[in-house]
């Protein structure tokens, strides 16, 4: 047996890491004036591996990037020591930046704070059929990417989305509190399949208003002003309408309160839908909401074949908005709206009463959603994107909340 003082004190490194012998070869080839790609071919490594090695583990004490095998090995071993302190645990400004965008309060358009439902932390994330905590709720990817726009010259403020997830989920990292996981978008750990309603096409949907007749400019998102809409439903026949602009992803929410007599008297046959999301109520809500925008940004509206759009012909006259309908069982034809409805379920979970929220609270949630940076917009927010459209329309400065 080998003497104990010659035994390895740790496991040998994986072959994916450079060994001391390879670092000696790099030092010799460097002294002979070989280039990075020549070294890579000689060692059977990627050129990027050699380039990073020369940059990270060089001897800099003399003021130059000299490469010595012993010094490089010392640098590599020091960098490989574990555990390392989490960046969010040791960098207070970065931690505050992440926490504010992950768990900051939702605000009304006038700047007032909205607390939302009081949800106690029970040591686990809440399911989709319970109230969820209201927060700004930027995703870790949005936080990490937006930081590059907010602090373009500050290297210390760099963070990856994976580091944020680890700070939330990996115990012992000491950076973010576990209860902040309730500020993440989904209330479940795994996706589950959902049954699709099986229903035929509606009689009020004629061939000339099908999505196949929608202008091509709406399909490629080149021209703003084409919207997608839908209803999200809750307990006691409550509902909230959603409108999403395809180009800017700007979201508007429709307040659909129950009508007088709902729940207290029987519904009259062929009478109005007292729950508040019948055809007449939805038509009036869309007209009231979307006519606040210039005509140039309200060109068309795409909806599914729900009965709430039975008065689409009147809506086209009142709002100056062309209405098109998706094919049956084809929610992907309104993909932007479906994605937005999924984001809104963080604030309005399934199985909760959506009639409990007033117009101001809906405006606050819409402002929070429109204030989140989007990857598809180059990490601009939908509000900033719509502001750019409105400025181009009016030729001046516009603000959108």
Automatic annotation (TrEMBL):
Ranges where the Integrase catalytic domain occurs: 211-390
Superkingdom field: Bacteria
InterPro entries xref list: Integrase_cat-core, IS30-like_HTH, RNaseH-like_sf, RNaseH_sf, Transposase-Integrase, Transposase_IS30-like, Transposase_IS30_CS
Record GO terms (molecular function): DNA binding; transposase activity
Annotated spans, Disordered: 107-135
Gene Ontology CC annotations of this record: cytosol
Keywords: DNA recombination, DNA-binding, Transposition
Example GO biological process: DNA integration
Biased composition annotated in UniProt, kind: Basic residues: 122-135
Family, as annotated: Belongs to the transposase IS30 family.
Known function: Required for the transposition of the insertion element.
Name this polypeptide is given: IS30 family transposase
Species annotation: Methylobacterium soli
Lineage: Bacteria, Pseudomonadati, Pseudomonadota, Alphaproteobacteria, Hyphomicrobiales
């Amino acid at each position: 047996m080998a003497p104990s003082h010659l035994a390895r004190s740790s496991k040998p490194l994986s072959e994916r890491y450079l060994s001391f012998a390879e670092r000696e070869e790099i030092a010799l080839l460097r002294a002979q004036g070989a280039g990075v790609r020549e070294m890579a071919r000689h060692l059977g490594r990627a050129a990027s591996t050699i380039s990073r090695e020369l940059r990270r583990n060089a001897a800099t004490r003399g003021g130059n990037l000299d490469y010595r095998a012993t010094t490089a090995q010392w640098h590599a071993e020091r960098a490989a020591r574990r555990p390392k302190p989490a960046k969010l645990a040791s960098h207070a400004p970065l931690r505050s930046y992440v926490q504010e965008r992950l768990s900051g309060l939702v605000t009304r358009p006038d700047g007032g704070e909205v607390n939302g439902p009081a949800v106690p932390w029970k040591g686990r994330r809440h399911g989709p059929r319970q109230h969820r905590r209201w927060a700004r709720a930027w995703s870790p990817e949005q936080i990490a990417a937006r930081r590059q726009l907010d602090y373009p010259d500050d290297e210390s403020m760099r963070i990856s989305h994976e580091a944020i997830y680890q700070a939330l989920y990996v115990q012992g990292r000491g950076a973010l509190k576990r209860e902040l996981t309730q500020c993440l978008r989904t209330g479940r750990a795994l996706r589950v399949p959902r049954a699709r309603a099986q229903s035929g096409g509606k009689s009020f949907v004629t061939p000339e208003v099908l999505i196949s007749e929608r202008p091509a400019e709406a399909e490629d998102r080149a021209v703003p002003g084409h919207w997608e809409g839908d209803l999200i439903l809750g307990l006691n026949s409550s509902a909230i309408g959603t409108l999403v602009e395809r180009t800017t992803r700007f979201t508007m929410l429709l307040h659909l309160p129950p009508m007088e007599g709902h729940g207290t008297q029987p519904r009259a046959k062929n009478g109005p839908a007292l729950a508040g999301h019948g055809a007449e109520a939805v038509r009036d809500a869309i007209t009231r909401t979307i006519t606040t925008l210039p005509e140039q940004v309200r060109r068309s509206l795409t909806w599914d074949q729900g009965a709430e759009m039975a008065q689409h012909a009147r809506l086209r006259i009142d709002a100056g908005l062309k209405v098109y309908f998706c094919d049956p069982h084809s929610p992907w034809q309104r993909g932007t709206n479906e994605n937005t409805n999924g984001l809104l379920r963080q604030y309005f979970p399934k199985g909760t009463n959506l009639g409990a929220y007033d117009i101001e609270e809906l405006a606050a949630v819409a402002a929070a959603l429109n204030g989140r940076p989007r990857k598809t917009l180059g990490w601009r927010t939908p509000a900033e994107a719509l502001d750019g459209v409105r400025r181009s329309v009016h030729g001046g400065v516009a603000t959108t909340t």
